[in-house]
Each structure stands twice: as structure tokens, then as C-alpha cells.
Amino acid sequence: MTRYRNLVLFVALAALWGSAFMAIKAGLDYFPPVLFAAVRYDVAGVLMLGYAVYVLDDPFPRGRDQWAVVAVGAVLLIAAYHALLFVGETDPAVNSATAAVIVSLSPVLTTGFARAFLPDQRLTLAGVAGLLLGLVGVAVLTGADLGAAVSGGAVAKLLVLAAAAAFALGSVLTRRIDADLPIESMEAWSMLGGALLMHLLSVGLGESVAAAEWTNPTALAALLFLAVGSSAVGFLIYFDLLERLGAVEINLVSYVAPVFAALTGWLFLQEAPTPGTVVGFCLIFGGFLLIKRDAIRDELPRVRRVAFRVRTLFSR
């Protein structure tokens, strides 16, 4: 039962986070990028704090370790990841599917950071090869040559890559700090802290609140979906699965999210994935297969048994 519960939550999270790339792209037509990300987490943070107050006896972090986890979440998982991602997606060269595929390098980066910070999750030689293959995939996506290195498209894609790195590092560090902080409390305070940091960054970048189209129906729909669905609900699922599966396993959601990103981008924004997007994703996924080859090999017998039962059922 736990296996199927985790699977359902995993697919739901992939759908919420994959569709978020489309919602970000749509909303950026109406909001300055960092301000858009900040307001998203103003709303999500208030919602989650209210939920934390409702379900917890004490929703406030206590002690250095608990505040350290909140700080990691605010700086890396919320502020750095979303500010870099939103700015990167302002470039026309970065459509929903491309952004999702670049972020799908996150599990490979997570494994690399885990080597440094989580001694029980070390990389083997094949794992290092997988990490390098994933980086080659990103090079294909960015069009890494002398001409593309200075183009707007490549710079924007590298910003999205930096966002993925920030999220991967944050995932590992939250596991490293043994704070015993409830998920609801950690999520709420990280969102509010990250929103504050992004508001400060927005002011520093000279973004104007008056430039946002606050009453546009498309803008409001994108903002509400991101704040409630992708943020409040999505991160609640994420941190729940993080505790159950670990930093490396949960970030595999990044390999399913591009499917939903491409589908929703095509349905709502008429975006079509490019051949480079497909090739880059295949290389990144190949890197993942190298890193997780032992776990996949151990799982194959169970998959074969399930497939055999399904064939037997339908052959009757």
C-alpha cells in the first residue's frame, strides 16, 4: 500500500511541477519575473502557515538546527531556484519543455552534492560517468559553442541550470541537517523567508509593482495555480516524499515533469519541443540510468512479475 501511495503522490507532484513551467511562461507576459516569483510565495507561504497553525501544536521553528533548515529552504529551494528559473524563462528561447528538461538534471546534480554532504550516498566511477553524461546533455540544450555562449538563449538556459543546481543542493542540505522540524512548519517558513528575499532582490533589480497587470484573468490564473497547486500542495507532497524516499530518489520527479511541461505548453501556449530538447533529455536520462543502475537492476524482477500477471489477466 505504501508503494502505491508513494507512486500516486509522485505522479501528482510531476503533474503539478511540470505544468508549472507552462504557468510561469504564461504569467511572465504580465509580471516582472522576480516580483512574480515573490508574490507567488507570498500567497503560498500565508496559506501554508495557516495550515501549519491548524495541524501543529507549535508551528514555530525552535533552536539553531530548525532555523538552519528553514534558512536552507528559503535561500536555495525557494529564492535562488525560483528567481533564476523565472528570469531564465523570460527568454523566448526557453520554452516550457526546455526549462523542464534542464531542471531534470537535478537528480544528477543531487547525487553529485550527496557525494560531498551525505556519506551514505557516494558516487561510483559509473556514477561519475553518469554525472558527466548529464552535463553533456545540458551542453546540447544550451548549444554550447562559441557563438551560442554569448547568445541570450544560452545565458537564459544557464540561469535555469543554476536554478536546478540550487534546488539540488538545497535538497541535500535539508537532509543533512537533523532538525526534526515538521514538514508543514518547514515549508511555511521557508516560503515566507524566500518570498522576502525575492522581494528584496526585485527592488534591487528595479522591478516595478506598477508594471504588473494584477487584474488580467490569465495573469491571476497563472499566479493562483502556481501559488496553490505547484507551491502549497506541490511542496507539501515533495517534503513528504523527501522524508520517505530521500534526496536522490525524490528528485527523479524531474524526469517525469518534462512530459507534463511539454503537454501543457503545447495545449495552452502552442509550444513544440525542439530536436535539441529531446536529445538533451535523452542524454540526461542516460546519466540517471548510469547513476541508478543498481537500484534499477534490483527492481527489474518485480517489474517482470507485475508484467507477467498483467499479461496473464488479459489473456484469459
From TrEMBL:
Where does it sit, as one GO cellular component term?
Answer: membrane
Name its cellular compartments.
Membrane
Respond yes or no to whether keyword Transmembrane helix is given for this record: yes
Instruction: Using the record's annotation, list all stretches that form the EamA domain.
Output: 8-142, 158-291
Is-annotated flag, keyword Ubl conjugation? no
A Pfam family reported for this protein in Swiss-Prot or TrEMBL? EamA
Q: Which organism is it from?
A: Halobium salinum
Q: What is its main location?
A: membrane
Per the record, membrane topology reads:
Multi-pass membrane protein
The protein's name in its UniProt record: DMT family transporter
**Keywords noted in UniProt:** Membrane, Transmembrane, Transmembrane helix
Tell me where the transmembrane regions lie: 38-56, 68-87, 99-118, 125-148, 154-174, 186-206, 218-238, 250-269, 275-291
